[in-house]
Amino acid sequence: MKRILFPTDFSEVATNAFVHALEFAKIIDGEIILLHSFELPVFDNQFFPENYMVIYESLELSQFEMFKDEIPKLRAIAEERNLDHIKLTHKLMDGGVVHNIKKAVKEEKINFVVMGTAGASGWSEFFSGTNTGYVLSDIDIPLLSIPENAKFEKIEHIGFTTRFRPKDKKALKSVLEIAKLADADVKCLYVKTSKSDVPKETIEKWETKFKDEPIEFFVIESEDVKNTILDFIQYKEIDILTMLTYKRGFFESLLHPSLTKKVANNFDVPLLSIHIEE
User: Fold this and answer.
1) How far apart are CA 142 and CA 171, in angstroms?
2) How far apart are CA 95 and CA 63, in angstroms?
3) What share of the chain is helix, strand, coil (3-state, %, to 5)?
4) Which of 203, 269, 200 is nearest to 230 (CA)?
5) Who has greater pLDDT, 216 or 58?
6) How far apart are CA 40 and CA 236, in angstroms?
7) pLDDT, tens digit, for every residue of 93-147?
8) Other CB atoms closer than 10 Å to residue 93's CB: what's the count?
């Protein structure tokens, strides 16, 4: 059984992402480990020699009580969606979010991380120094990030951007496994610019290799790569966009605030990041 780590601060953003985590667990036959992190303040015990431990114990207890109160709410969401059969376990950890996620991934043998990301456009905030962005660069397992306005929709079309490199092929095979479990198809996009260097023969080899799979390839000539991808998501009704983590620098500007508000609001789709060793 696959293991999904779901970091949460019990905010509305996280609660919305929890629905996606549940549905994703259903698709891959997985279980969910809920992780709540908190950081205790640093006190100089020379000023609190008598009640130093009392302060810490009270703070830890307040976090535990809040954690205990929130868990039934998440279980109720699972029950409402008829997904209460999905196994839920819990971890309450002191320390920084990113550090605890990395630690939990190792200790719990996690296969996927699912977490919410806030911001006007979802993706722009994802890459602008948030916890999600830091996690992206620090873990080597797939990360499914859920923008705050991304309501769950049945996964029918998974987008995959590619430049037809060997490491792209490895990632595509992983995406294909998920697509088959979800009874979805994969739509691969290659934006061909004047500086593109992918031979036509390479593209044809890929098409031949995957001809019996639920995969469709699109080659679009454009100098505006970012907006071509955004248009592709809209017109092909992409439910999840897949990226490779080595492309983080490019995607940092995919939904830059300079893009129109209309674009930002229309492209709140979940983003699946896959780590590929160089």
Assistant:
1) 10
2) 12
3) 45, 20, 35
4) 269
5) 216
6) 47
7) 877 888 888 899 999 999 999 988 775 444 444 444 455 555 655 678 898 988 8
8) 19
